[in-house]
Amino acid sequence: MRVRNFFTIFVTIILTTICLYYISSIIINKKNNKKILNLGLDLKGGISMILDISEKDLLKKFSDNSKNFIFLKALENADKKKKEKPNEDYLSLFINSFNQETNNNKLDISLSSQNLFGNKSNFEEIDPNSSNSEVKKILRKKIESSIISIQNILRSRIDKFGIIQPNIQRIKNSNRILIELSGIKNINRIKNILEKKAELHFFETYDIQEIISYFNIINKFYDKKYSKIKKHFIDILNIPLIKASNTVGLVHINHKKIISDFLNSSEARNFLPYHLHDVKFLWGYKKLDNFFQLFAVKINNENTYDSLNGDMVTHVYKSFSPLNEISINIKMNQEGTKKWKIFTEKNMGKSIAIVLDNLVYAVPVVKSIIPNGMSQIYGNFSIQESNDLINVLNTGELPTSVKIIQTDIIGPYLGKESIRKGIISFLIALFFIFTWMFFYYSIPGLYADIVLFFNIIFIFGILISMNAVLTFPGIAGIILTLAMSMDANILIYEKIKENIKKKIYILTSIHNSYTLHGALSSIIDGQITTLLCGIILFYFGVGPIRGFATTLIIGIMISMFTSICLGRLFLEYHLKKYKKISFRKKMSIFVLNKIKNMQYDFLSRRKWVYMISCILIIVSILSFFLKGFNMGLDFVGGRSYVILFDRKMVPEKISKILSKTFIENGKPSFPRVQTFGDKNQLKIVTKYKIWEENNKVDEIILKKIFSALKIFFPINFEDFRKIKKNKSLGILSIEKVGPTVAVDMTHKAFLSIILSLIGIFTYIFIRFKKWEFGLGAIISLIHDSIIVLGVFSFFHEKFSILEIDQTFIAALLTIIGYSINDTVIVYDKIRQISKKTSFMMKETINKGIYSSMSRTINTSFITLLVILIIFSFGGKILHSFMLALFIGISVGTYSSIFIAPSIVYDFCKKDIKK
């Protein structure tokens, strides 16, 4: 006992000290504080970037870098027209220019020619007889496929970078992608990760002795061309300072551009001797004391440039040498392994260059033949650089280059006013919980409140220490873990009261309740099933699911310690000091007796329960197909408007004003409004008439926005809508954005939930030694989810708040976590009672259900009342989330009592008959 208490006190002091340190450092805003709690886009905002995908480079790639002069001229003309008409489709501009050029030059050449798009790479799709219009359709599909691929690669890079819940949306009918990220400190680093094409090549190199004669020849020409520069070309290269023969220059950063331009100029290349016809000059990736290394590599198409590249890389990882130097290890596929063996055999004792996006990352000397397809890059990498490089290489090469063309600071989706109301409602709810626990359990209730307080400190302290990103779904995970923590205390207290009622000594009652034969079994089973669910969701989930899972895992680990160890310490300390402790007040005794004396036959009503549930499920499923859902912006996308005002604006107020204008099916549609750049600039995204794609709808929406906000604009409609440079008021940009939650994210979310259900079934089967318990739990969870979705589907035409978005996903996950915890606790009571009987008899299950009723009613009452408080005081932005929770937890409590035990009984009864 002393050892246990010492351990609890020691861990509590350590955790409290560390967590309070991190929390206080944020409160007093310590400078140079490396540990912070990053808030997600929905809570704090972040940066918004628009990436432009080069369709020109894609067309060059599809043509196998054709040198046809008509093709190149058409691309050049398309570039010019795109600048004049930025909203025009680039492919159409190119096709029109190509047709015009062929007519002007009176040439009979088509896009399906072998030296254009009818090449070997496209032979399965394009034959020599394909018309230009047919080729255009095929190219359109290939461009769309490439953009989707780029979007997925960028999402993967961002996920590996560690950003929680990014928004990645395709700007409709364009080659641009909108990316919104929270908690970014080093913008240049994320830009480098996103813009890097990840084109990996392996080249043979020239050493300085092979190049020096050429440099001496062009040195005179350089002096004439750049006569104003006092330094000679040879002097700028700093050849005497070069330490390795595979380096051909060491150039100061101030001279890098001019040397690069000169070496790549046609004049300089005209002086190249025949044996250097395949030379290419590349820079090292890293600056060395304001100097960059210059390398000369052999561009030999036959051996390296096209045949040995990043497409053959299967896996990249890092390792450490005995001297703690970081190396990047590259593993190749079977084809790459064969070619790498030949390549290293050919270059024994020579240097080879490992080049990523035309930058040399390493120039190792081949000391032996490498037959296993492994290579290593040693480049004096920092941890951050190595992680970023591994991230980029593992996620694959982009089909074409991308460029960030716009970066802006954006405000939170929820708005400061909504967040303020949410915090106030949360504090009111906590106050109610503290009051109720003290009212119901007296002094032990006060200790449960203190345990809950420690829970909150530990959760936020750990999140800060991890530099975690807190999002709205993450807050949902915290709410669930706090509910489970309070539930654990209620389970223990109810068990203690049962023991006291049996005339067991108080200290023994407390001790017994903290054993597996007491309340500990129920607590562990409930929390482990939810923890297992959280781990699976974190591993397989993306976006809001991972944010939810992160806080859920941390919260459950903390709540198990505080409820089991810290709560017990407080009770034993109180009993030791005051010799007595009461676990109930007069009012709670009355309520408890009413519940305990209840002898209701739950199972005898199971046919009615099945019938009611089946009707609700059938109606819900029919509603899915007939009425559908009110899908939010996260799933359908919308029209985005950036508007400049002449004063600072409050996003929530603008959203409320516009909702009165955007009326669909008799109900208001609230747009998403957030600051964009300066505080007098707002970004408004609305899904109003999103399914209608025509210019008339665009005009209607613009007029509605202008009409609703006219009081802020002393200008006419034409001036408001016209987009031009240096505009002082009105619309700055109009775009149609795709959904935040992409199809692949939905599939991953569905997969993670299915795997969670399988995990829950497996654990319950192992723990309870009967598959019927696992089946009952899974059916119960599916039952709860379908009914909640059914309510949101059936009534969405009447109530606009019944919207399916990312917050609804968080609510559904919270419902699943709460419901499984509820069900497992009822199961545990049944199991404890069934140990005294041979089979799962009706009386056993009924007794198990109503013996857990005190805890079920207490926990559900507290949770539902807390939800109502947050719903009432938290503002409209929380209404959908809290309503989903209220419905889900109500249905979950019903299914835990009536559905899950009934299924166990019916299937066990069949086994008994057999």
Give a short synopsis of this structure.
The chain is α+β, with helices and mostly antiparallel strands and about 900 residues long. The protein has 31 helices and 21 strands.
Q: Oligomeric status of the shown chains?
A: single chain
> What portion of residues is helical?
55-70%
Number of helices: 31
Strand segment tally:
21
Largest sheet: 5 strands, mixed, barrel
| Rg, alpha carbons | 34 Å
Strand order, sheet with most strands: 5-8-7-12-11
- Give the low-confidence spans: 302-306
Please state the overall shape, judged from the principal axes of the Cα atoms. globular
Secondary structural class? alpha+beta
- What is the CA-CA span between the terminal residues? 49 Å
Descriptive labels:
4-stranded antiparallel beta sheet; 5-stranded mixed barrel; alpha+beta; globular
Provide a descriptive summary of the structure in words.
This protein is α+β, with helices and mostly antiparallel strands and 914 residues long. It is 57% helix and 13% strand. It contains 31 helices and 21 strands. Strands 5-8-7-12-11 form a 5-stranded mixed β-barrel. Mean pLDDT is 81; it is low at 302-306.
